[in-house]
């Protein structure tokens, strides 16, 4: 293959997590042979060696359980990864992933000592993932109501909860909410992310293989959900593209799911995992 593969924008583990979340979780399937997982990654441009190394790391991290049937390795979901995937699915599958109650915000102030730079970096990463933007030094804001203790706990940062104070907030009259949003987030970059998504998935899928198509759709969608935590459209102009992105995702997922499900069943039949 010349040049980067279609999944090059995503790490192999992120691609596998999206495959497992969209096509394996709660599907009542037997353990998956390594060939099925490696074939999906190959269709996304991931080399076999990188795919095998990713599977090994996921086993070491307790995300997958590895078994052996003859000379074939097989993998199943662990309770840990099932919990991770179900948490992600609450927003991934939401019919209104970019909407929050009007005027509802979460404010958070935290202070991590200079001597704990690694912890500070991890806290900042967890807050960004949860939709927070930096409003001022030490003050973060997110649309809607965010369970900060759960966010930090999910990332193994329970020790940081005592360093952070979070409040539900509503802007007072005279507050420049439009300006606040633009200070806390790179609004042009968020808009560009939406337009890339609708351009990519508004037409034919950019990759062959139905399982790979649905996997890449999920990975691109999750990236967009991280880029836009649900910025209020009323403060961003009448042409804000979030609603168009959500509609594009729903159409693409509905169109791709049946073929991906059939392809996965064929793959398992070919390896004798299902009758």
Summarize the structure.
With 275 residues, the protein is of the alpha+beta class. It has helices at residues 12-23, 34-43, 48-60, 79-92, 117-129, 148-154, 177-184, 187-201, 210-227, 242-270, and strands spanning 32-33, 64-69, 72-77, 105-110, 133-136, 139-143, 164-169. It is globular, with a radius of gyration of 20 Å.
3D structure, described in words:
This protein is of the alpha+beta class and 275 residues long. The chain has two domains: 1-98 and 186-275, Winged helix-like DNA-binding domain superfamily/Winged helix DNA-binding domain (Arc Repressor Mutant, subunit A, Orthogonal Bundle); 105-170. Helix content is 51%, strand content 13%. It has ten helices and seven strands. It has a four-stranded antiparallel sheet with strand order 5-6-4-7, with helices on one face. A hairpin with a 2-residue loop joins β5 and β6 (139-143). α8 (187-201) packs antiparallel against α9, α8 (187-201) packs across α10 and α9 (210-227) packs antiparallel against α10. The longest helix has 29 residues, at 242-270. It is globular and about 65 Å long. The two termini are 34 Å apart. The mean pLDDT is 89.
Q: CATH topology of the largest domain, what is it called?
A: Arc Repressor Mutant, subunit A
Helix run count:
10
Distance between the termini: 34 Å
> In CATH, what is the homologous superfamily of the largest domain?
Winged helix-like DNA-binding domain superfamily/Winged helix DNA-binding domain
**Helix residue percentage:** 40-55%
Give the radius of gyration.
20 Å
Give the percentage of residues in beta strands. Answer: 5-15%
Seen as an oligomer or otherwise, the chain set is single chain
Question: H/E element string?
Answer: HEHHEEHEHEEHEHHHH
Low-confidence stretches: none
Strand order of the largest sheet: 5-6-4-7
Number of individual domains: 2
What's the main sheet like? 4 strands, antiparallel
